[in-house]
Amino acid sequence: MNGTTNDKEESKAMILLLGLRRGGKSSICKVLFHNMQPLDTLYLESTSNPTMEHFSTLIDLAVMELPGQLNYFEPSYDSERLFKSVGGLVYVIDSQDEYMNAITNLAMIIEYAYKVNPTINIEVLIHKVDGLSEDFKIDAQRDIMQRTGEELLELGLDGVQVSFYLTSIFDHSIYEAFSRIVQKLIPELSFLENMLDNLIQHSKIEKAFLFDINSKIYVSTDSSPVDIQMYEVCAEFVDVTIDLFDLYKSSQQVDKSGKAVQARPRELKNVSQLGNGVILYLRQMIRGLALVAVIRPNGSDMESCLTVADYNVDIFKKGLEEIWANSRIST
């Protein structure tokens, strides 16, 4: 590849996915961006060439996976241009393997990346933790964080901020981690959070997420803490809604002369009341986004709750359209 990214890919909304061979990078991409079942990733071959994944939310985001055996610092590879062009560097460490080599490699990459791009976000996935006990997870995280800090201190980089996440493709932790990573690259994040807080304040909504429908990454949520179980329920509701939506295709419409006419595209929407009375509410927004909200009626009837929610979500959607229009003008 020799660093030859085109102009569209050379935006700050690009993430580099790095790590040693067999660390789980390709599996992460397949699960996140291709809806591959985690068990099916066991049969993936090791990546030998850089690969690129794209998805568009409020930003056009590219995730570039680089092979573990690639030497980024050889003369023929334009590393400076590559590292300057990205907003986030995500390094995957296999928690079930001997990870000292990975930490040394990570520190070397951080030293170079930070020199050419001081604003880059450094993210570390402590991956494959599904096979570890809770105590061992915490011990591994503490050890990796400490050793990484020591390596960076030796390089004179003790001021560099590094975020660490415990992840697995067998649960929602990888989606949660990537959601937080992507959010750092969205300039309008504070506006989105304020808008969601305002939506909640004027509705009986307890929690709201703005999902990228295809990847189930949430690009924003309100300012209240994220409960991982609530996030999992909402993410699974997205899956169910899409499955049902795809099951019932629109029938072709005809005009008076019998000619087929273009049917108006259906809006993705779903409402479901759980056994405990909680309402799950999903509405399609713009650019592959959907709002998913958890509503607690608290004595109110379901119909009145949904009427208020629909009205306020319409206002929220118009606000999103304005943000998107303004961001296009400014770029």
Which properties best describe this structure?
Beta-Lactamase; six-stranded mixed sheet; alpha/beta; Rossmann fold; about 325 residues
Uncertain residue segments: 1-12
Could you say how many structural domains there are in total? 2
DSSP strand tally:
13
**In the CATH hierarchy, what is the class of the largest domain?**
Alpha Beta
Number of helices: 8
Q: How would you name the CATH homologous superfamily of the largest domain?
A: P-loop containing nucleotide triphosphate hydrolases
Strand share of the residues?
A: 15-25%
Keywords: GTP-binding, Hydrolase, Membrane, Nucleotide-binding
Family: Belongs to the GTR/RAG GTP-binding protein family.
InterPro entries: Gtr1_RagA (IPR006762), P-loop_NTPase (IPR027417), RagC/D (IPR039400)
Subunit structure: Component of the GSE complex.
